[in-house]
Specification:
This protein has 173 residues and is an all-alpha fold. The chain has six helices and no strands.
Length: 173
């Protein structure tokens, strides 16, 4: 059953939340009049949206690779553990990339919220808040997939990214 539901796991969901957040940021920038850099900022948000969408698919593939490795019936325990370990490493690297992208979106949302007003500022703020939540989810997945403590560099990095995204959202919310 898990094999059929792998696309519904937390990683792709976090990545799609980042994509939604980036779309909100692009919208807010795109409809703002009188802002010379609005087009470039919207293009940057669109690039982040595409990156997040690709990461959703990449995470689903990483989860599938882990599930496949777990089902592998290698009679040698060491070989099986090695394959599982490699699959879990990849399953941690993708959520780390999701956290990085989420932090970038939150910081961009903060910049946009500072430049727009009226009707679209709440969209930029919503983008920052969504990105923060996605960064938190991704950071959690990094830690779980590594089964490591807070002393692991990737776990620390993911937590720092989630914290930075949260600070950006808090400054404009």
């Amino acid at each position: 059953m898990a094999r059929d539901l792998h696309v519904l796991t937390g990683g792709p969901a976090a990545a799609l939340a980042v994509a939604s957040a980036a779309a909100l940021v692009a919208l807010a920038a795109r409809v703002t009049e009188g802002w010379e850099d609005a087009g470039a900022v919207a293009a940057q948000a669109d690039a982040l949206r595409r990156r997040a969408t690709a990461l959703a698919a990449e995470d689903a593939e990483a989860v599938q690779a882990y599930l496949d490795a777990r089902e592998q019936a290698d009679p040698r325990q060491a070989a099986r553990d090695f394959v599982l370990g490699r699959a879990l490493e990849r399953a941690a690297d993708v959520p780390l990339a999701i956290a990085e992208t989420a932090c970038d979106v939150a910081l961009l949302a903060e910049a946009v919220a500072d430049r727009v007003g009226g009707d679209v500022r709440p969209d930029a703020v919503a983008g920052a808040l969504l990105a923060h939540g996605a960064a938190q989810a991704a950071a959690h997945l990094v830690a779980v997939n590594l089964a490591a403590g807070a002393d692991d560099e990737r776990t620390r990095r993911a937590a720092e990214l989630a914290r930075a995204a949260g600070e950006a959202a808090a400054r404009i919310a």
